[in-house]
Design a protein that fits this description.
By secondary structure, the protein is α/β, with parallel strands linked by helices. Helices cover 34% and strands 20% of the residues.
Length: 414
């Protein structure tokens, strides 16, 4: 309902909404659009561009992650909500964050047989609950949702186990079992704690990753915050990026949820209007004041949750040498280790192994590849450069690019 209200408000404001259209390249404030219906590209110049690219499920690489029956939480939710089809007969969830409560609760609500839910973080303690209560002002709806999800999990008799992580998926041709184990504060597996549960579906939900390819193409400056999804674009008090005329809002600036995304969009719109001279600074400040108040309340709540759901480095240490890390190009961990021993340049490893060059353009493997190279180099993942983004950022038919809409930067001879 909130989404529909935003769509209606945009239409009433006179905005032209183009559905079935993807932005496949961004250079400054000129965006290249691909129309799914027309099958062609067009270039749209603008005085200001607001990029709100959203996020996708954080890929986690472990032995068996490519087996049929392993699915991300977002994929499973879409399947159940859109088609009312259960993802399996015996479903296990492995993840962390508020999703570890919300996801099993929602699946049970739809009648799915969830036999186990794993949370890699610690069980809530009195101190952490006290922090959440202190951050309650402005966040009561979120607290009510969390309590309702916990009650649904209890009523559904779904076992919820803390400080445990998926180790591998097992099966011949498809998932038949999940092996999980206890972890320490850094999410590293504790030897001798492995357990096996018979399942036919494993849903993973270890948070989200910003879909920031367009902002990379635009040349925006980034910083690294693991708990916000990894590489997040830097913005100022009006959501401006480091590139003149380009603003960013939502999960591309760090995964914080739908409420924050909507208010960041409002703040960016006010900032754009201010920059273009449509409103004076005093009017902009007045309009922004309640928005900033709500955003500050959400940030207090996120800070209160952080001790419970901080991402551990062990999330990148589950693969074995035989595990295929880049599924598009079928590159194993052993192959990546070999390349990383020769070069600590992430793009050199990409060129040498082809990891990150497939259909997903590194969305599923880039973070894992970076972790491999970082370990070899004795660096933190946060110190690694990202793989170079290339247009188009989404797969499009070759014929759609056979015009002057996408610059070739001299790579092709005419």
């Amino acid at each position: 309902m909130r989404g529909l209200a935003l769509v209606d408000a945009a239409r009433q404001a006179g905005a032209e909404l183009s559905t079935g259209t993807s932005v496949v390249s961004l250079r400054g404030t000129s965006a290249v659009l691909y129309g799914e219906r027309s099958g062609s590209t067009t270039t749209l110049p603008a005085r200001r561009v607001l990029v709100a690219p959203g996020a996708y499920d954080r890929p986690v690489v472990f032995p068996g992650w490519a087996l049929p029956g392993v699915i991300t939480a977002g994929g499973a939710q879409a399947l159940v909500k859109a088609t009312r089809v259960s993802p399996g007969d015996r479903v296990a969830f492995a993840g962390s964050g508020p999703l570890a409560l919300a996801f099993p609760a929602q699946l049970r609500h739809y009648g799915v047989n969830v036999v186990l839910a794993l949370e890699a973080g610690p069980a809530p303690q009195a101190r952490s609950l006290g922090g959440l209560l202190a951050a309650a002002p402005g966040n009561l709806a979120l607290l009510r949702d969390g309590a309702a999800y916990r009650l649904q999990v209890l009523r559904g008799r779904v076992p919820l186990r803390y400080r445990r992580i998926i180790v591998r998926a097992e099966g011949e041709g498809r998932v038949e079992a999940m092996v999980h184990a206890a972890v320490d504060a850094e999410w590293r597996v504790l030897p001798g704690t492995e357990e096996t549960v018979a399942v036919d579906t494993i849903c993973t939900g270890y948070g989200f990753v910003p879909s920031a390819e367009l902002l990379c193409l635009a040349g925006c400056r980034f910083r690294y915050e693991e708990d916000l999804g990894g590489g997040v674009v830097e913005v100022d008090e009006w959501q401006r990026t480091s590139v003149p005329g380009v603003l960013a809002a939502g999960d591309g600036t760090g995964v914080r949820g739908a409420f924050v995304a909507a208010d960041q969009g409002r703040l960016a719109a006010i900032g754009a209007a201010l920059d273009l001279g449509s409103i004076p600074l005093t009017r902009a400040a007045t309009l922004a004041r309640p928005v900033r108040r709500r955003l500050a309340a959400k940030e207090r709540f996120r800070n209160a949750l952080r001790p419970l759901y901080a991402i551990g480095a062990g999330i990148y240490e589950l693969a074995t040498p035989e595990t295929v890390v880049c599924r598009c190009e079928e590159v194993t961990l052993a192959r990546l280790e070999e390349a990383a021993s020769a070069s600590h340049d992430l793009n050199a490893v990409k060129s040498y192994t082809r990891a990150g060059m497939g259909l997903c353009q590194g969305r599923n493997c880039q973070r894992q590849v970076a972790a491999v190279v970082a370990r070899r180099a004795g660096l933190a993942v946060s110190q690694m450069e990202v793989m170079t983004a290339r247009p188009p950022v989404r797969p499009v038919p070759l014929g759609a690019l056979a015009d002057d809409a996408i610059p070739d930067e001299g790579l092709f001879v005419r």
